[in-house]
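Q: Could you fold this chain for me?
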Amino acid sequence: MKIKFKKKRLYINLILGLVWLALGILNLTEDDKIRWTDYGYLVAGILYIGHYLYDLTNQYLTIESGTIRKNGLYGFGKRINLNEINWIKKFAGDYTLKTEERELKINTELIDKDSLTELNKILGELNLPPEKTPFANNVQN
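A: Sure. Below is the predicted structure, expressed as structure tokens.
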């Protein structure tokens, strides 16, 4: 299951990429003398469009085979086993999933509304004591 980015974040990267590409092409076609810095606009545009394509295909989080993986461009992805999580901390809209050795921070402001509901459901189903999760059922009989 993929936890998706908000569409706004994806579109911003696409628009920035197209703007930088357009500036680069404009600089290359308008100037008689081409400088090496003119290629910087093209590189920035290609990087933004690459980032958009990566985020579009991989999205923010992937939950499969008992693990949750934060997909990061340039090899900065983190992975944590769901059954090893012993504490979930919620602060300022972020979730911090902690195990004995690792920590995974999830920025909920980047997550699509429907995907956030699914993530909350999955994290709420973890077998954690009520004092170690913000998803504990606080209803008392």
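A (continued): The radius of gyration is 20 Å.
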